[in-house]
Design a protein that fits this description.
- The complex is a heterodimer.
- Chain A is of the alpha/beta class.
- Helix content of chain A is 43%, strand content 11%.
- Chain A has a six-stranded parallel sheet, sandwiched between helices. A two-stranded antiparallel ribbon of chain A has the order 6-7.
- In chain A, helix 5 packs across helix 6.
- Chain A is globular.
- In chain B, strands 1-2 form a two-stranded antiparallel ribbon.
- By secondary structure, chain B is mostly helical.
- Chain B is 68% helix and 4% strand.
- Chain B is built from twelve helices and two strands; from the N terminus they run E-E-H-H-H-H-H-H-H-H-H-H-H-H.
- The chains are: A alpha/beta, B mainly alpha.
- Chains A and B meet through helix 2, helix 5, helix 6 and helix 7 of A and helix 4, helix 10 and helix 11 of B.
Amino acid sequence: MSELPLIFTVAGLALLVGLLLAPLETLGWWAGWIEGDETDRPMDEPADKPPVPDNIRGYIVYLTGISGVSGDVFLPEEERFLERLDASLDDYVVVKDVYPYSVRNEALTGQRVFARVWRFALNMKLSGKGLQRWLGFLINLRNVFQVMVSADRRYGPLYNTGFARLIVRSLLHHGYERSSGMPVYLLGYSGGGQIAIGSVPYLKNMLRAPVTVVSLGGAMGADPGAEDVEHIYHLYGKRDGVQRLGWILSPSRWHIGRWDILPLSRWNHARREGKMTFLFMGDMRHNGKEGYLDNEHSATGDGRSNLTVTVERIVGIVREHDATYYHPAAA
Amino acid sequence: MHRPSWDVTGRHMETFDVDFTGFGAAISTIYNIITAILRRERGIIAEMHTEDGVLLLSLVVVFIAGLSERIGQSVVLFVNEVSPRRMVFSLVVGALLFVGGYVLWMVLIWAGASLLFRPGASFRDVAVAVGLGYAPLSLGFLALIPYFGGGILSLLYLWVFVVATAAVGAVLNLEPWQAVFVSSGGMLIILVVRSTIGLPLVKIARRIRNLAAGKRLELKVREAVEKRDIEPLLQLITGEVEQVERDNE
Protein backbone atom coordinates (compact mmCIF):
# COMPACT_ATOMS: atom_id res chain seq x y z
CA MET A 1 0.00 0.00 0.00
CA SER A 2 3.06 2.25 0.29
CA GLU A 3 2.89 2.81 -3.49
CA LEU A 4 -0.58 4.35 -3.21
CA PRO A 5 0.57 8.01 -2.89
CA LEU A 6 2.91 7.48 -5.84
CA ILE A 7 0.10 6.00 -7.93
CA PHE A 8 -2.19 8.92 -7.09
CA THR A 9 0.56 11.44 -7.88
CA VAL A 10 1.28 9.85 -11.27
CA ALA A 11 -2.45 9.61 -12.05
CA GLY A 12 -2.98 13.24 -11.02
CA LEU A 13 -0.08 14.41 -13.20
CA ALA A 14 -1.33 12.35 -16.14
CA LEU A 15 -4.78 13.88 -15.70
CA LEU A 16 -3.30 17.39 -15.62
CA VAL A 17 -1.21 16.77 -18.75
CA GLY A 18 -4.28 15.33 -20.49
CA LEU A 19 -6.31 18.42 -19.61
CA LEU A 20 -3.58 20.81 -20.75
CA LEU A 21 -3.12 18.99 -24.06
CA ALA A 22 -6.85 18.60 -24.76
CA PRO A 23 -7.30 21.85 -26.75
CA LEU A 24 -4.10 21.45 -28.80
CA GLU A 25 -5.60 19.48 -31.71
CA THR A 26 -8.27 22.14 -32.15
CA LEU A 27 -5.84 25.06 -31.81
CA GLY A 28 -3.28 23.48 -34.16
CA TRP A 29 -5.96 22.71 -36.75
CA TRP A 30 -7.38 26.24 -36.62
CA ALA A 31 -3.96 27.92 -36.85
CA GLY A 32 -3.08 25.77 -39.87
CA TRP A 33 -0.20 24.04 -38.12
CA ILE A 34 -1.36 20.56 -39.13
CA GLU A 35 -0.16 19.69 -42.63
CA GLY A 36 -1.94 17.26 -44.95
CA ASP A 37 -5.20 17.11 -43.03
CA GLU A 38 -7.32 14.39 -44.62
CA THR A 39 -10.53 16.20 -43.74
CA ASP A 40 -9.52 19.06 -46.04
CA ARG A 41 -10.94 17.15 -49.00
CA PRO A 42 -14.24 15.41 -49.75
CA MET A 43 -14.86 11.95 -48.30
CA ASP A 44 -13.97 9.03 -50.56
CA GLU A 45 -16.96 7.73 -52.51
CA PRO A 46 -17.49 3.98 -52.18
CA ALA A 47 -17.79 2.21 -55.53
CA ASP A 48 -21.21 0.75 -54.68
CA LYS A 49 -22.71 3.85 -53.12
CA PRO A 50 -26.51 3.68 -53.46
CA PRO A 51 -28.31 6.76 -54.84
CA VAL A 52 -30.23 8.97 -52.41
CA PRO A 53 -33.97 8.13 -52.68
CA ASP A 54 -36.29 10.90 -53.86
CA ASN A 55 -38.59 10.74 -50.83
CA ILE A 56 -35.97 11.93 -48.31
CA ARG A 57 -37.44 14.48 -45.89
CA GLY A 58 -34.33 15.22 -43.87
CA TYR A 59 -31.03 14.08 -42.40
CA ILE A 60 -30.28 12.81 -38.90
CA VAL A 61 -26.64 13.03 -37.81
CA TYR A 62 -25.81 10.75 -34.89
CA LEU A 63 -23.09 11.94 -32.51
CA THR A 64 -21.91 9.07 -30.36
CA GLY A 65 -21.41 9.23 -26.60
CA ILE A 66 -18.17 9.74 -24.72
CA SER A 67 -17.34 6.05 -24.91
CA GLY A 68 -16.85 6.31 -28.68
CA VAL A 69 -13.48 5.74 -30.31
CA SER A 70 -14.36 6.47 -33.93
CA GLY A 71 -17.18 7.21 -36.34
CA ASP A 72 -17.47 3.60 -37.47
CA VAL A 73 -17.03 1.48 -34.32
CA PHE A 74 -19.97 1.50 -31.93
CA LEU A 75 -20.86 -0.39 -28.80
CA PRO A 76 -23.24 -3.31 -29.54
CA GLU A 77 -26.23 -1.52 -27.94
CA GLU A 78 -25.53 1.58 -30.05
CA GLU A 79 -25.36 -0.56 -33.21
CA ARG A 80 -28.77 -2.03 -32.36
CA PHE A 81 -30.17 1.44 -31.60
CA LEU A 82 -28.98 2.87 -34.91
CA GLU A 83 -30.34 -0.10 -36.87
CA ARG A 84 -33.77 0.34 -35.25
CA LEU A 85 -33.72 4.08 -35.83
CA ASP A 86 -32.70 3.64 -39.45
CA ALA A 87 -35.50 1.12 -40.02
CA SER A 88 -38.11 3.35 -38.32
CA LEU A 89 -37.18 6.48 -40.27
CA ASP A 90 -36.79 5.16 -43.80
CA ASP A 91 -37.54 8.58 -45.31
CA TYR A 92 -34.57 10.08 -43.45
CA VAL A 93 -30.89 9.51 -44.00
CA VAL A 94 -29.19 8.53 -40.74
CA VAL A 95 -25.57 9.71 -40.86
CA LYS A 96 -23.28 8.06 -38.32
CA ASP A 97 -19.75 8.41 -39.66
CA VAL A 98 -18.80 11.65 -37.89
CA TYR A 99 -16.67 11.24 -34.79
CA PRO A 100 -17.59 14.10 -32.47
CA TYR A 101 -14.47 14.05 -30.30
CA SER A 102 -11.93 15.13 -32.89
CA VAL A 103 -12.04 18.22 -35.12
CA ARG A 104 -10.20 16.16 -37.73
CA ASN A 105 -12.52 13.15 -37.51
CA GLU A 106 -9.47 11.17 -36.38
CA ALA A 107 -10.46 7.90 -34.74
CA LEU A 108 -8.61 7.26 -31.49
CA THR A 109 -7.59 3.87 -32.86
CA GLY A 110 -6.22 5.57 -35.98
CA GLN A 111 -3.88 8.01 -34.24
CA ARG A 112 -0.20 7.86 -35.14
CA VAL A 113 1.22 7.84 -31.63
CA PHE A 114 -1.44 6.60 -29.22
CA ALA A 115 -3.44 4.18 -31.42
CA ARG A 116 -2.14 1.16 -29.47
CA VAL A 117 -3.10 2.69 -26.13
CA TRP A 118 -6.66 3.41 -27.29
CA ARG A 119 -7.03 0.00 -28.95
CA PHE A 120 -5.93 -1.58 -25.68
CA ALA A 121 -8.39 0.60 -23.73
CA LEU A 122 -11.19 -0.32 -26.16
CA ASN A 123 -10.47 -4.04 -25.80
CA MET A 124 -10.50 -3.65 -22.03
CA LYS A 125 -13.82 -1.84 -22.22
CA LEU A 126 -15.46 -4.41 -24.48
CA SER A 127 -14.21 -7.56 -22.80
CA GLY A 128 -13.14 -6.65 -19.31
CA LYS A 129 -14.68 -6.51 -15.89
CA GLY A 130 -13.52 -4.83 -12.70
CA LEU A 131 -10.14 -3.16 -13.12
CA GLN A 132 -10.02 -3.87 -16.86
CA ARG A 133 -13.30 -2.04 -17.33
CA TRP A 134 -11.85 0.95 -15.47
CA LEU A 135 -8.91 1.02 -17.88
CA GLY A 136 -11.46 1.33 -20.68
CA PHE A 137 -12.77 4.37 -18.86
CA LEU A 138 -9.67 6.23 -20.14
CA ILE A 139 -11.51 6.65 -23.45
CA ASN A 140 -14.45 8.32 -21.69
CA LEU A 141 -12.10 10.62 -19.81
CA ARG A 142 -10.27 11.67 -22.97
CA ASN A 143 -13.58 12.39 -24.71
CA VAL A 144 -14.93 14.33 -21.71
CA PHE A 145 -11.93 16.65 -22.13
CA GLN A 146 -13.02 17.30 -25.73
CA VAL A 147 -16.57 18.02 -24.53
CA MET A 148 -15.01 20.57 -22.16
CA VAL A 149 -13.16 22.11 -25.12
CA SER A 150 -16.46 22.42 -27.01
CA ALA A 151 -18.17 24.01 -23.99
CA ASP A 152 -15.29 26.44 -23.29
CA ARG A 153 -16.11 30.01 -24.34
CA ARG A 154 -12.52 30.46 -25.66
CA TYR A 155 -11.95 27.15 -27.48
CA GLY A 156 -15.61 26.38 -28.18
CA PRO A 157 -16.00 28.61 -31.27
CA LEU A 158 -12.94 26.97 -32.87
CA TYR A 159 -13.87 23.40 -31.97
CA ASN A 160 -17.49 23.80 -32.95
CA THR A 161 -16.59 25.42 -36.29
CA GLY A 162 -14.24 22.52 -37.03
CA PHE A 163 -16.85 19.99 -36.09
CA ALA A 164 -19.63 21.71 -38.07
CA ARG A 165 -17.33 21.46 -41.09
CA LEU A 166 -17.02 17.69 -40.52
CA ILE A 167 -20.79 17.35 -40.40
CA VAL A 168 -21.13 19.26 -43.69
CA ARG A 169 -18.47 17.03 -45.24
CA SER A 170 -20.33 13.91 -44.19
CA LEU A 171 -23.74 15.26 -45.20
CA LEU A 172 -22.43 16.05 -48.69
CA HIS A 173 -21.05 12.53 -48.88
CA HIS A 174 -24.53 11.22 -48.11
CA GLY A 175 -26.13 13.25 -50.87
CA TYR A 176 -27.13 16.40 -49.01
CA GLU A 177 -27.33 19.49 -51.18
CA ARG A 178 -26.01 22.65 -49.59
CA SER A 179 -28.51 25.54 -49.53
CA SER A 180 -31.35 23.12 -50.34
CA GLY A 181 -32.93 24.01 -46.97
CA MET A 182 -33.37 20.30 -46.18
CA PRO A 183 -33.76 20.03 -42.36
CA VAL A 184 -30.98 18.50 -40.31
CA TYR A 185 -31.37 16.84 -36.91
CA LEU A 186 -28.34 16.41 -34.67
CA LEU A 187 -28.90 13.45 -32.38
CA GLY A 188 -26.32 13.78 -29.61
CA TYR A 189 -25.93 11.05 -27.06
CA SER A 190 -24.16 11.95 -23.79
CA GLY A 191 -21.26 14.34 -24.54
CA GLY A 192 -22.47 14.40 -28.16
CA GLY A 193 -25.32 16.58 -26.87
CA GLN A 194 -22.96 19.44 -25.97
CA ILE A 195 -21.06 19.15 -29.24
CA ALA A 196 -24.36 19.14 -31.16
CA ILE A 197 -25.63 22.33 -29.52
CA GLY A 198 -22.19 23.97 -29.78
CA SER A 199 -21.90 23.39 -33.52
CA VAL A 200 -25.42 24.55 -34.42
CA PRO A 201 -24.67 28.27 -35.21
CA TYR A 202 -21.78 27.35 -37.50
CA LEU A 203 -23.57 24.42 -39.14
CA LYS A 204 -26.65 26.53 -39.80
CA ASN A 205 -24.48 29.17 -41.40
CA MET A 206 -22.62 26.65 -43.58
CA LEU A 207 -25.73 24.75 -44.72
CA ARG A 208 -28.24 27.62 -44.74
CA ALA A 209 -30.78 25.15 -43.38
CA PRO A 210 -32.72 24.64 -40.13
CA VAL A 211 -30.96 22.55 -37.49
CA THR A 212 -32.75 20.81 -34.63
CA VAL A 213 -31.01 19.08 -31.70
CA VAL A 214 -32.23 15.89 -30.05
CA SER A 215 -30.18 15.27 -26.92
CA LEU A 216 -30.26 11.75 -25.50
CA GLY A 217 -29.03 12.20 -21.95
CA GLY A 218 -26.82 15.00 -23.30
CA ALA A 219 -24.39 16.64 -20.89
CA MET A 220 -24.87 20.14 -22.27
CA GLY A 221 -23.39 23.37 -21.03
CA ALA A 222 -25.32 26.63 -21.37
CA ASP A 223 -23.98 27.01 -24.88
CA PRO A 224 -24.83 30.18 -26.83
CA GLY A 225 -25.71 27.86 -29.74
CA ALA A 226 -29.07 27.40 -28.01
CA GLU A 227 -30.21 30.68 -29.55
CA ASP A 228 -29.56 29.52 -33.12
CA VAL A 229 -31.15 26.10 -32.87
CA GLU A 230 -34.65 25.48 -34.25
CA HIS A 231 -35.51 23.48 -31.16
CA ILE A 232 -33.78 21.35 -28.51
CA TYR A 233 -35.45 18.15 -27.34
CA HIS A 234 -33.66 16.88 -24.26
CA LEU A 235 -34.45 13.30 -23.21
CA TYR A 236 -33.43 12.45 -19.67
CA GLY A 237 -33.87 9.54 -17.28
CA LYS A 238 -34.42 9.70 -13.54
CA ARG A 239 -31.18 7.86 -12.79
CA ASP A 240 -29.00 9.55 -15.40
CA GLY A 241 -26.31 11.39 -13.43
CA VAL A 242 -24.23 12.23 -16.52
CA GLN A 243 -26.80 14.54 -18.13
CA ARG A 244 -27.17 16.25 -14.74
CA LEU A 245 -23.45 17.11 -14.85
CA GLY A 246 -24.11 19.53 -17.70
CA TRP A 247 -26.57 21.36 -15.47
CA ILE A 248 -24.31 21.28 -12.39
CA LEU A 249 -21.33 22.75 -14.26
CA SER A 250 -23.28 25.52 -16.01
CA PRO A 251 -24.33 28.35 -13.69
CA SER A 252 -26.26 29.90 -16.59
CA ARG A 253 -28.69 26.98 -16.35
CA TRP A 254 -29.23 27.28 -12.59
CA HIS A 255 -32.46 28.55 -11.14
CA ILE A 256 -34.08 28.92 -7.76
CA GLY A 257 -37.66 27.84 -8.13
CA ARG A 258 -38.93 29.79 -11.13
CA TRP A 259 -36.13 32.38 -10.93
CA ASP A 260 -33.10 32.03 -13.19
CA ILE A 261 -29.75 32.83 -11.57
CA LEU A 262 -28.55 34.46 -14.82
CA PRO A 263 -31.74 35.47 -16.62
CA LEU A 264 -29.90 37.31 -19.41
CA SER A 265 -27.84 34.30 -20.56
CA ARG A 266 -28.42 33.12 -24.11
CA TRP A 267 -29.47 29.71 -22.83
CA ASN A 268 -32.23 31.22 -20.69
CA HIS A 269 -33.24 33.53 -23.50
CA ALA A 270 -33.65 30.53 -25.81
CA ARG A 271 -35.61 28.67 -23.13
CA ARG A 272 -37.98 31.59 -22.62
CA GLU A 273 -38.50 31.72 -26.39
CA GLY A 274 -39.88 28.18 -26.14
CA LYS A 275 -36.98 26.56 -27.98
CA MET A 276 -36.48 23.77 -25.44
CA THR A 277 -38.52 20.72 -24.59
CA PHE A 278 -37.43 18.47 -21.72
CA LEU A 279 -38.78 14.93 -22.02
CA PHE A 280 -38.71 12.62 -19.02
CA MET A 281 -37.80 9.03 -19.90
CA GLY A 282 -38.78 7.42 -16.62
CA ASP A 283 -36.53 5.35 -14.42
CA MET A 284 -33.64 5.05 -16.92
CA ARG A 285 -29.89 5.26 -16.47
CA HIS A 286 -27.40 6.94 -18.79
CA ASN A 287 -25.92 3.76 -20.26
CA GLY A 288 -25.38 0.03 -19.76
CA LYS A 289 -27.92 -2.02 -17.83
CA GLU A 290 -31.20 -0.13 -17.39
CA GLY A 291 -29.84 2.61 -19.64
CA TYR A 292 -31.61 4.30 -22.56
CA LEU A 293 -30.34 1.65 -24.98
CA ASP A 294 -30.96 -1.45 -22.83
CA ASN A 295 -33.02 -3.93 -24.86
CA GLU A 296 -33.66 -6.27 -21.89
CA HIS A 297 -35.00 -3.98 -19.20
CA SER A 298 -38.33 -2.12 -19.22
CA ALA A 299 -38.44 1.09 -17.19
CA THR A 300 -42.03 1.79 -18.22
CA GLY A 301 -43.24 -1.58 -16.93
CA ASP A 302 -45.50 -2.09 -19.96
CA GLY A 303 -43.24 -4.67 -21.55
CA ARG A 304 -41.53 -2.30 -23.95
CA SER A 305 -37.76 -2.32 -23.51
CA ASN A 306 -35.88 0.91 -22.79
CA LEU A 307 -34.43 0.74 -26.28
CA THR A 308 -37.90 0.50 -27.84
CA VAL A 309 -39.14 3.45 -25.79
CA THR A 310 -36.09 5.53 -26.71
CA VAL A 311 -36.41 4.79 -30.43
CA GLU A 312 -40.18 5.48 -30.36
CA ARG A 313 -39.62 8.78 -28.56
CA ILE A 314 -37.00 9.96 -31.06
CA VAL A 315 -39.07 8.87 -34.06
CA GLY A 316 -42.07 10.66 -32.53
CA ILE A 317 -40.05 13.85 -32.04
CA VAL A 318 -38.76 13.84 -35.60
CA ARG A 319 -42.18 13.07 -37.12
CA GLU A 320 -43.98 15.68 -35.04
CA HIS A 321 -41.36 18.38 -35.55
CA ASP A 322 -41.28 17.65 -39.26
CA ALA A 323 -45.06 17.86 -39.56
CA THR A 324 -45.28 21.03 -37.47
CA TYR A 325 -42.50 23.08 -38.99
CA TYR A 326 -41.28 21.67 -42.31
CA HIS A 327 -44.05 19.77 -44.06
CA PRO A 328 -47.32 20.85 -42.40
CA ALA A 329 -49.36 20.00 -45.49
CA ALA A 330 -48.25 16.38 -45.30
CA ALA A 331 -49.27 15.97 -41.66
CA MET B 1 22.23 27.13 1.21
CA HIS B 2 19.07 26.47 3.27
CA ARG B 3 18.66 28.10 6.68
CA PRO B 4 16.00 27.11 9.21
CA SER B 5 13.65 29.93 10.18
CA TRP B 6 10.08 30.48 11.45
CA ASP B 7 7.25 32.38 9.86
CA VAL B 8 4.91 34.89 11.52
CA THR B 9 2.65 32.12 12.85
CA GLY B 10 5.61 30.29 14.37
CA ARG B 11 5.56 27.64 11.62
CA HIS B 12 8.94 26.26 10.54
CA MET B 13 10.17 27.44 7.13
CA GLU B 14 13.40 27.28 5.14
CA THR B 15 15.04 30.46 3.92
CA PHE B 16 17.96 30.22 1.50
CA ASP B 17 20.73 32.21 -0.13
CA VAL B 18 19.87 34.14 -3.27
CA ASP B 19 22.52 32.80 -5.62
CA PHE B 20 22.86 33.85 -9.27
CA THR B 21 26.53 32.87 -9.66
CA GLY B 22 25.77 29.93 -11.96
CA PHE B 23 22.90 28.63 -14.08
CA GLY B 24 22.13 25.70 -11.74
CA ALA B 25 22.25 27.88 -8.63
CA ALA B 26 19.96 30.48 -10.27
CA ILE B 27 17.39 27.83 -11.26
CA SER B 28 17.52 26.43 -7.72
CA THR B 29 17.01 29.91 -6.20
CA ILE B 30 14.02 30.67 -8.47
CA TYR B 31 12.49 27.26 -7.76
CA ASN B 32 12.96 27.67 -4.01
CA ILE B 33 11.31 31.08 -3.79
CA ILE B 34 8.35 30.16 -6.01
CA THR B 35 7.65 26.88 -4.19
CA ALA B 36 8.02 28.57 -0.79
CA ILE B 37 5.39 31.15 -1.75
CA LEU B 38 3.12 28.50 -3.27
CA ARG B 39 3.46 26.51 -0.02
CA ARG B 40 2.11 29.65 1.62
CA GLU B 41 5.14 30.17 3.84
CA ARG B 42 3.95 33.43 5.30
CA GLY B 43 6.81 35.72 6.09
CA ILE B 44 9.29 34.30 3.55
CA ILE B 45 9.24 37.53 1.51
CA ALA B 46 9.66 39.73 4.61
CA GLU B 47 12.44 37.45 5.80
CA MET B 48 14.39 37.56 2.54
CA HIS B 49 13.71 41.01 1.10
CA THR B 50 17.02 42.46 2.28
CA GLU B 51 19.19 39.72 0.69
CA ASP B 52 21.60 40.66 -2.09
CA GLY B 53 20.28 39.87 -5.55
CA VAL B 54 16.65 39.57 -4.40
CA LEU B 55 15.56 42.47 -6.63
CA LEU B 56 16.80 40.59 -9.70
CA LEU B 57 15.11 37.46 -8.35
CA SER B 58 11.79 39.30 -8.05
CA LEU B 59 12.08 40.55 -11.66
CA VAL B 60 12.78 37.00 -12.86
CA VAL B 61 9.73 35.77 -10.92
CA VAL B 62 7.54 38.42 -12.59
CA PHE B 63 8.89 37.47 -16.03
CA ILE B 64 8.22 33.76 -15.41
CA ALA B 65 4.72 34.61 -14.16
CA GLY B 66 4.14 36.72 -17.27
CA LEU B 67 5.38 34.02 -19.63
CA SER B 68 3.25 31.38 -17.93
CA GLU B 69 0.18 33.61 -17.98
CA ARG B 70 0.73 34.37 -21.69
CA ILE B 71 1.00 30.62 -22.43
CA GLY B 72 -2.28 30.12 -20.60
CA GLN B 73 -3.87 32.81 -22.74
CA SER B 74 -2.23 31.71 -26.00
CA VAL B 75 -5.59 30.85 -27.57
CA VAL B 76 -5.62 34.46 -28.83
CA LEU B 77 -2.49 33.76 -30.86
CA PHE B 78 -3.83 30.47 -32.21
CA VAL B 79 -7.15 31.98 -33.21
CA ASN B 80 -5.28 34.67 -35.15
CA GLU B 81 -3.38 31.91 -36.99
CA VAL B 82 0.07 33.00 -35.79
CA SER B 83 2.96 30.81 -37.00
CA PRO B 84 4.96 28.71 -34.47
CA ARG B 85 8.03 31.00 -34.65
CA ARG B 86 5.95 34.15 -34.22
CA MET B 87 4.12 32.41 -31.39
CA VAL B 88 7.34 32.01 -29.35
CA PHE B 89 8.34 35.61 -30.10
CA SER B 90 4.88 36.87 -29.14
CA LEU B 91 4.92 34.97 -25.85
CA VAL B 92 8.27 36.51 -24.85
CA VAL B 93 7.17 40.02 -25.89
CA GLY B 94 3.89 39.48 -24.03
CA ALA B 95 5.85 38.50 -20.90
CA LEU B 96 7.95 41.68 -21.16
CA LEU B 97 4.80 43.81 -21.47
CA PHE B 98 3.48 41.97 -18.43
CA VAL B 99 6.62 43.06 -16.53
CA GLY B 100 5.73 46.63 -17.59
CA GLY B 101 2.33 46.19 -15.94
CA TYR B 102 4.04 45.04 -12.77
CA VAL B 103 6.29 48.14 -12.73
CA LEU B 104 3.24 50.37 -13.04
CA TRP B 105 1.37 48.72 -10.16
CA MET B 106 4.48 48.60 -7.97
CA VAL B 107 5.25 52.31 -8.51
CA LEU B 108 1.66 53.25 -7.63
CA ILE B 109 1.80 51.13 -4.45
CA TRP B 110 5.12 52.70 -3.45
CA ALA B 111 3.83 56.23 -4.18
CA GLY B 112 0.61 55.57 -2.24
CA ALA B 113 2.44 54.11 0.77
CA SER B 114 5.03 56.92 0.78
CA LEU B 115 2.45 59.70 0.50
CA LEU B 116 -0.13 58.34 2.90
CA PHE B 117 1.47 56.09 5.51
CA ARG B 118 5.27 55.70 5.36
CA PRO B 119 7.18 58.76 4.14
CA GLY B 120 10.53 57.65 2.76
CA ALA B 121 9.41 54.04 2.19
CA SER B 122 12.10 52.04 0.41
CA PHE B 123 11.37 51.73 -3.32
CA ARG B 124 13.52 48.61 -3.50
CA ASP B 125 11.58 46.90 -0.68
CA VAL B 126 8.25 47.53 -2.39
CA ALA B 127 9.66 46.37 -5.74
CA VAL B 128 10.81 43.10 -4.16
CA ALA B 129 7.61 42.53 -2.17
CA VAL B 130 5.28 43.11 -5.12
CA GLY B 131 7.54 41.24 -7.57
CA LEU B 132 7.81 38.10 -5.46
CA GLY B 133 4.07 38.35 -4.88
CA TYR B 134 3.61 37.40 -8.55
CA ALA B 135 4.88 33.85 -7.84
CA PRO B 136 1.40 32.23 -7.89
CA LEU B 137 0.98 33.31 -11.53
CA SER B 138 3.86 30.99 -12.46
CA LEU B 139 0.95 28.51 -12.58
CA GLY B 140 -0.79 30.74 -15.15
CA PHE B 141 -0.30 28.07 -17.84
CA LEU B 142 -3.14 26.20 -16.08
CA ALA B 143 -5.48 28.63 -17.84
CA LEU B 144 -5.06 26.28 -20.83
CA ILE B 145 -7.32 23.76 -19.06
CA PRO B 146 -10.59 23.72 -20.96
CA TYR B 147 -13.75 25.04 -19.32
CA PHE B 148 -12.20 25.72 -15.89
CA GLY B 149 -9.07 27.55 -17.11
CA GLY B 150 -10.60 31.04 -17.00
CA GLY B 151 -11.75 30.55 -13.41
CA ILE B 152 -8.36 29.14 -12.37
CA LEU B 153 -6.63 32.22 -13.82
CA SER B 154 -8.95 34.55 -11.90
CA LEU B 155 -8.14 32.71 -8.67
CA LEU B 156 -4.40 32.97 -9.40
CA TYR B 157 -4.74 36.74 -9.89
CA LEU B 158 -6.57 36.94 -6.58
CA TRP B 159 -3.77 34.94 -4.96
CA VAL B 160 -1.18 37.35 -6.39
CA PHE B 161 -3.12 40.27 -4.96
CA VAL B 162 -3.26 38.68 -1.51
CA VAL B 163 0.45 37.68 -1.43
CA ALA B 164 1.70 41.03 -2.79
CA THR B 165 -0.51 43.00 -0.39
CA ALA B 166 0.60 40.94 2.61
CA ALA B 167 4.26 41.26 1.56
CA VAL B 168 4.03 45.04 1.11
CA GLY B 169 2.38 45.27 4.52
CA ALA B 170 5.15 43.17 6.08
CA VAL B 171 8.18 44.96 4.55
CA LEU B 172 6.77 48.47 5.20
CA ASN B 173 5.27 47.54 8.55
CA LEU B 174 1.80 48.72 7.51
CA GLU B 175 -1.52 47.89 9.14
CA PRO B 176 -3.44 45.30 7.08
CA TRP B 177 -6.05 47.88 5.99
CA GLN B 178 -3.29 50.28 4.89
CA ALA B 179 -1.68 47.57 2.75
CA VAL B 180 -5.03 46.66 1.19
CA PHE B 181 -5.76 50.35 0.59
CA VAL B 182 -2.52 51.05 -1.31
CA SER B 183 -2.52 47.86 -3.39
CA SER B 184 -6.22 47.97 -4.34
CA GLY B 185 -5.95 51.75 -4.88
CA GLY B 186 -3.06 51.18 -7.26
CA MET B 187 -5.04 48.59 -9.18
CA LEU B 188 -8.08 50.85 -9.38
CA ILE B 189 -5.97 53.72 -10.74
CA ILE B 190 -4.55 51.40 -13.44
CA LEU B 191 -8.07 50.32 -14.45
CA VAL B 192 -9.29 53.91 -14.69
CA VAL B 193 -6.16 55.20 -16.46
CA ARG B 194 -6.25 52.36 -19.01
CA SER B 195 -9.59 53.48 -20.34
CA THR B 196 -8.93 57.24 -20.12
CA ILE B 197 -5.61 59.12 -20.31
CA GLY B 198 -3.65 55.88 -20.58
CA LEU B 199 -5.27 54.90 -23.87
CA PRO B 200 -2.23 55.91 -25.96
CA LEU B 201 -0.09 53.57 -23.82
CA VAL B 202 -2.58 50.77 -24.31
CA LYS B 203 -2.47 51.39 -28.05
CA ILE B 204 1.34 51.30 -28.06
CA ALA B 205 1.28 47.98 -26.16
CA ARG B 206 -1.23 46.59 -28.65
CA ARG B 207 0.93 47.75 -31.54
CA ILE B 208 3.98 46.03 -30.03
CA ARG B 209 1.92 42.84 -29.67
CA ASN B 210 0.80 43.06 -33.28
CA LEU B 211 4.39 43.62 -34.44
CA ALA B 212 5.55 40.54 -32.55
CA ALA B 213 2.73 38.43 -34.00
CA GLY B 214 3.32 39.79 -37.50
CA LYS B 215 -0.35 40.71 -37.91
CA ARG B 216 -3.15 42.72 -36.39
CA LEU B 217 -4.50 40.57 -33.56
CA GLU B 218 -8.22 40.26 -32.91
CA LEU B 219 -8.33 39.80 -29.13
CA LYS B 220 -11.89 38.48 -28.88
CA VAL B 221 -12.04 34.82 -29.92
CA ARG B 222 -15.67 34.74 -31.03
CA GLU B 223 -15.21 37.84 -33.18
CA ALA B 224 -12.02 36.43 -34.71
CA VAL B 225 -13.92 33.25 -35.60
CA GLU B 226 -16.80 35.21 -37.08
CA LYS B 227 -14.40 37.34 -39.14
CA ARG B 228 -12.69 34.36 -40.72
CA ASP B 229 -14.00 33.55 -44.15
CA ILE B 230 -15.14 29.94 -43.83
CA GLU B 231 -15.92 29.56 -47.54
CA PRO B 232 -12.40 28.43 -48.58
CA LEU B 233 -12.60 25.65 -45.96
CA LEU B 234 -15.95 24.58 -47.34
CA GLN B 235 -14.70 24.68 -50.91
CA LEU B 236 -12.05 22.15 -49.93
CA ILE B 237 -14.57 19.69 -48.55
CA THR B 238 -17.12 20.19 -51.32
CA GLY B 239 -14.43 19.40 -53.89
CA GLU B 240 -14.81 22.78 -55.61
CA VAL B 241 -11.09 23.49 -55.18
CA GLU B 242 -10.11 20.19 -56.85
CA GLN B 243 -12.50 20.95 -59.69
CA VAL B 244 -10.89 24.38 -60.27
CA GLU B 245 -7.42 22.80 -60.23
CA ARG B 246 -8.51 20.18 -62.76
CA ASP B 247 -10.05 22.87 -64.98
CA ASN B 248 -6.81 24.89 -64.82
CA GLU B 249 -4.77 21.88 -65.90
